[in-house]
Amino acid sequence: MGSLIGHAASGLFFFLSGLWHLYSNVKLYLLQPNSFKSLPWFPTAKFRYLELSLIILATSLYLVFELFVGPSNHHPFDKDGTNQLRNFQHSSTFMSFLVYAVFAILLDRVKPNNVSYGLTELLAGLAFSLQLFNSRLRSTDHAGVEGQYHMFLRPLIAVSLATTLTGIARPNSFLVSFVRSASLLFQGSWLMVTGFMLWTPQLIAKGCFINNENGQLVVRCHGSKALQRARSLVNLQFSWFLISMASAAMSLYLLMVKQYSGERSEYRTMKSDKLLDERLEGIEVECLEEDGGLKKSSTIQMGSLHRPADNKQTLVM
């Protein structure tokens, strides 16, 4: 993953996952605020396992490129038979997400219930734990500019891990699911920013350059002053990035509130009308049993008089 393509591809994976979960959680909450329950993954109307299938496809492609296509000898081992540690560290993270997606499908097909969803969340937490572990202990140098970018990535992964595990005990909490989805969105965006800022020569900080070290492109700086300046710029970038992404998440929520508030009102109106019809039918049946149909017309007339002419008057906004 130590390249522009590797960071951009993995960042796009997390970005799309976070965006899909953020949209689905907000929509589900706006339509059913009282019975909201977040899901570890969200089925679609045409194909139930579309999200999980895309995860399996994306992670499988990443493993193939990382282990077989990317290396110059097209296999994950050096000439002396030892493995290329960096490639295996990157691959193990995506392999954990592959395992998560596969078992999520199997658990849902066997018995979809609260226990299976909890186990699926646990597998997701395991994947984030391994991602955090590899990000902290990977074999590349963390003292330079690249290390500064990855230092800010770790808190985002930690938030994803914490909210995923919290979601097992609190699946009805909208705030937990919102933060978890937003953290995935932030994580993917920051990975893409890291890829473009580190491996685009025009975007590298003043006084720094790209150096080829054992087949790996690494950003180095001329002296400690240039390095300190580059790291300070990364700090500033992350501050602006965090503000921008938080604003984007809040804006998405407000737009969806405006869009789905009408559907929520219509849903409540239909539900209220259904309850009213059931009550009227009960009154009618009771009157028929008492008077042999004498009060049938008066009962229907009473129902029509008490039914509001405009359904909007019965809405609870």
UniProtKB/TrEMBL annotation:
This is Uncharacterized protein. The chain crosses the membrane at residues 6-26, 47-68, 88-107, 114-132, 152-169, 181-199, 238-257. Pfam families: DUF716 (PF04819). GO terms for cellular component: membrane. The keyword Thylakoid does not apply. Keywords: Membrane, Transmembrane, Transmembrane helix. The lineage of its organism: Eukaryota, Viridiplantae, Streptophyta, Embryophyta, Tracheophyta. Its main location: membrane. It comes from the Eukaryota. It is a multi-pass membrane protein. Belongs to the TMEM45 family. It is found in: Membrane.
